[in-house]
Design brief:
Layout (H helix, E strand, L loop, with lengths): L4 H39 L5 H4 L2 H15 L12 H30 L7 H4 L9 H19 L2 H8 L7 H25 L4 H8 L4 H36 L6 H10 L3 H31 L1
Helix pairs in contact: 3-12, 4-8, 4-10, 4-12, 6-8, 7-8, 8-10, 9-10, 10-11, 10-12, 11-12
Amino acid sequence: MTAPKGITGSRGAGSGRRAMSFARASFYGFLLLAALSWGYLLLGGDSGLDEFSSSKTWGNASRFLQELAGVDSEVRPAFLSLSRWVDTGRLAYQTLAMSVLAIGMAGLAVLVTFLPGARNVGSGELGGGFSLRWRLLYYLLRGLFAVTRAVPELVWALLLVFFLSPGILAGAVALAIHNYGVLGKLSSEVVENLDPAPARALRSAGASNLQMLVYGIMPQALPHFVTYLLYRWEVVIRTTVVVGFVSAGGLGRELRLSLSFFHYTDVTQIIIWYLILVLAVDLMAAWLRRLARFD
């Protein structure tokens, strides 16, 4: 027996109104928060909007840009000196080495831990039975992923320079610890969304848990892992300047020293080197991703 059209229509309209009312409430809440934020900027006494729009601020910005460009400088700008390019080139090489070392350490650590960090592996859904050890390992790794990615790279670097000598190793380890948590979470979530049929087929054929993970899950998850690894490398080369500010080596430390001694043309040269490094790493990572997809 079918329900009357009026009743069915009223139920559908009611559910539609509820869904629409939630969407409207979310939109109105966003508008309210935006209005409050702009109201604080426009009416707040300590928002800094007055200083931002003052002629003094823009005059200081103009003078700072002129100093970066070496306009009316009493000494020869650093970016016009070949010897300075050679010196900062060595620091750029150290910065690149720091990024490669960091993403390499993070990638190796994630490669051996992201499978047991997946929920369906820890619970035995991917063809295996429930194991208390796998379940405990899952919670341990998920907690480790959360802690390492929750603490910024700068904080890790500040902690590491207390017992590691300042240099690219301390910066690389700090970057690797933070990116281990990021890559671990992303890679584990890839495993949680995989098709369980190949792993279950291997399990039914008599494969062990290790064989099931290596031959049934790893081939599906590895391309995603490589893609995430290359994307994080692009991020790491940008964040080397942050850890360099705490004497972790590379261009970041030189940038801090140049700012401290008001060597603004040196700052310009270091920024140019960072642009070169970022562009080179982006192009290299894009080429490697295309190569991985081609294979």
